[in-house]
Amino acid sequence: MKDYYQVLGIGRNVSQEEIKKTFRRLALRYHPDRNPQSQNQAEEKFKEINEAYQVLGDKHKRLQYDYMIALSQHRQKFVTEDDFGVAFSQTLDGETLQQLLRRLAALGLSFNSGMGYMRGCRRGYGRRCRRW
């Protein structure tokens, strides 16, 4: 997966305005019509810059891209570093279990199924709250 932030030469926490300014500056710099001596190279770079801007310039696509990058980084870390080997080789006391759950939450896994013990105890459910 391409790093679109690196293609545009910006940080991950820049604003949408900064992305737009950077894109315009790079688009003018690498436009094929402005680089007749190396038109093929400029065209490839221009396409790459345009592709990066299509993703990062749209807030919704940018959020999806950031999520996919974070997910792929966590998957690589999980596979290559084996973070949980120590936790499973020991007995699971309370602290070790909490650490394990924090690490799983960092990977985006959630164990909240919506079937908790408080279900039905909100206003408007009537007698169901008494059954719990």
Detailed description of the structure:
With 132 residues, the protein is mostly helical. It has a domain at 1-86: DnaJ domain (Helix Hairpins, Orthogonal Bundle). 63% of the residues lie in helices and 0% in strands. The chain is built from seven helices and no strands. It has helices spanning 4-8, 16-30, 39-56, 59-81, 85-89, 94-106, 128-131. Helix 2 (16-30) runs antiparallel to helix 3.
Q: What is the β-strand count?
A: 0
Q: What low-confidence regions span 5 or more consecutive residues with pLDDT below 50? A: 86-90, 114-119
CATH hierarchy class name of the domain at 1-86 = Mainly Alpha
Euclidean distance between termini CA atoms: 49 Å
Task: Write a concise synopsis of the structure shown.
With 132 residues, the chain is mostly helical. Helices cover 63% and strands 0% of the residues.
Write the topology of this structure.
Layout: H1 4-8, H2 16-30, H3 39-56, H4 59-81, H5 85-89, H6 94-106, H7 128-131
Tag the structure with descriptive keywords.
132 residues; mainly alpha; Helix Hairpins
